[in-house]
User: What shape does this take?
Amino acid sequence: MKFVVLTKAAVPLSSAIRIDPKTGTLVREGVPLTANVWDRDAVEFALEMRDRYGGEVVAISMAPPTGILALESLIGMGVDRAILASDRAFAGADTWATAHVLAKTIEKYVPDFDLVVTGEETIDSTTAHIGAQTASWLGVPYLYYVYNAEVRGRTLIAKRFLEDEGVDEVYELKMPAVISVLRSSQIPREVKLSRKLTAREHLQIVDNSKLGLDQDCVGLRGSPTMVVGMSPAAYPPRKRIVISGAPGEVAKKVAEVLRELGVVCAVSGLQ
Assistant: This one.
């Protein structure tokens, strides 16, 4: 079986995130990138499926050349090979244009895939769009919040957990299919240095001369998302109030202040 993991070379720290003021897009060029931490759940999920059913795991990412390091770490985890789609024409892409590139990369380089696995979302943009959009481009079923699955013939029996509702659901999907793995649902295996040292031997870089995509459908030009404006976050003013007295009186005064500020609606039980 062939398992494809879609992963993002993400900006690892919120303090390092920069937005291009002209395009409103995330700046990744020249920024140290690492494998999106929540994608490691997806990688572990795919590796366990491969270990159980045989085959190979292929990691695919669309990123600047600095994304190579992120893919090397995934090969170190056990991914069999990796493909980096990297071209200046892809820069500034929103999730729709990114999913287009990823889907076309899958169709060209892993056309006989059985299952595409993604993380729940990324740490730098947190859209959670890529799984569903890639499935749409590929024309296959999609399911999110998956934490466990088994294969019966050409059917995937997948379990997912709805966090807000606290319930488990079981779905049957005809393969090929795309799933997103519930974050923190797996225990990612460690990166082996021996595999990471030879990662370049298992990594392929493709640009648009190889993919042959219409430049009006990729990058900033192919992105329907429009950022109409940006402004810095406004922090609310802070107050400092000093209250002294006996513990019981202080507690009552604190409760009164919180009620006046609208932090609490009512306070009862204080004597």
